[in-house]
Design goal:
CATH superfamily of the largest domain: FAD/NAD(P)-binding domain
Number of helices: 5
Order of helices and strands: EEHEEHEHEEEHEEEH
Bound molecules: flavin-adenine dinucleotide
Structural class: alpha+beta
Strand content: 25-35%
Number of strands: 11
Shape: globular
CATH topology of the largest domain: FAD/NAD(P)-binding domain
Radius of gyration: 21 Å
CATH class of the largest domain: Alpha Beta
Strand order of the largest sheet: 6-7-8-5-9
Length: about 280
């Protein structure tokens, strides 16, 4: 790395050039990117523009981050500062927003951002032992594609609505989601769930690919661009393995892990798809 450049990551971690960086990691938005020509018809990412978003409330009660993540526009009054960073290496790990970055460097992505909801459910059963039994089960995936596991005194239950239209949307349907999608499946699953109550819930975005598996590795045609995103509903579980393998690839120029199968090139040949059948 040249002394006048800094390696930065186009990621949720963003970039911040001072020691208080970890106070406000999510307030640094990659708002622009530039590529330049390289030998052998390749390109490199030359620089990214970082916009620091004003506000210090980690709960983001003013909603500026939420608004930016659904509209991709930083309102002028939300700008704290701007910085242009030269890039030695860039990793696109923007989750459901990775296609936005890809598009800016000219790559057509297969990933679709798709809303997924989950909620806490209070189980009202006279026999406390029956509820305790749930704790020995770990996470349950029901044949109806409902999934749940104990969470404190309640259970956490989710269901991925199959015909949910793609889009950048965090609205949670609340009680209606529980009544229509969660409760009937719980009640069908076990009589323990006949009486239960919606406590609260939330929604987030899955980054969904055609085979429902993630995308990781070097981006073809670029000399300094890697990616690791689109892990649908399994990104937390896969994060350690993916990060370790990608770090090895970046450091050594190759990887000994099976991460190579996650390269985006597979989408041009359906026989190379890594189809995940479980719809959760
Ligand atoms: C309801 C729900 C339940 C889930 N349950 C599970 C589970 O049980 N187990 C499991 O393994 N996974 C689960 N997942 C999936 C898991 O959350 C994701 O796969 C994982 O978070 C993906 O991680 P990521 O780092 O790739 O992307 P993300 O966690 O989405 O991180 C991307 C980050 O990029 C930021 N960003 C976007 N655009 C920009 C930009 N231009 N500049 C800077 N930053 C930007 C975003 O703010 C975000 O913080 C669930 C997801 C949802 C929605």
């Amino acid at each position: 790395m040249g002394s006048s450049t800094r390696t930065r990551f186009a990621s949720g971690s963003g970039a911040k050039p001072n020691p208080s960086a970890f106070d406000s990691l999510n307030r640094h938005y990659v708002s622009g990117v530039s590529t330049s020509r390289q030998p052998q018809s390749k390109r490199r990412v030359s620089w990214v523009d970082i916009t620091e978003i004003a506000g210090r409330d980690p709960l983001d009660q003013e909603g500026s981050i939420r608004s930016i993540l659904t509209t991709h526009v930083v309102p002028p009054d939300a700008v704290e500062s701007r910085e242009r960073i030269e890039c030695d290496l860039v990793v696109n790990c923007l989750g459901a927003w990775s296609p936005v970055f890809s598009a800016k460097v000219g790559i057509s992505d297969v990933t679709e951002p798709t809303r997924r909801q989950i909620c806490m459910v209070s189980v009202q059963h006279e026999d406390a032992n029956r509820i305790q039994e749930l704790h020995s089960l770990g996470m349950v995936v029901d044949p109806s594609d409902l999934y749940f596991h104990p969470e404190g005194n309640d259970i956490l239950a989710g269901y991925s609505i199959p015909d949910e239209a793609p889009g950048f949307d965090f609205d949670y349907d609340g009680e209606a989601f529980f009544r229509e999608h969660i409760w009937p499946r719980l009640a069908e699953c076990s009589s323990v769930f006949e009486r239960c109550k919606h406590v609260r819930g939330w929604s987030g975005l899955y980054a969904v690919t055609p085979d429902r598996s993630g995308i990781a590795g070097p981006v073809a045609g670029f000399t300094n661009l890697f990616e690791a995103h689109s892990f649908t509903g399994r990104g937390v579980m896969q994060s350690y393995g993916i990060a370790t393998a990608l770090a090895e690839w970046i450091d050594r120029g190759s990887t000994s892990s099976s991460i190579a199968m996650l390269n985006r090139d597979r989408f041009s040949d359906p026989s190379k798809w890594l189809v995940e059948d479980l719809h959760i």
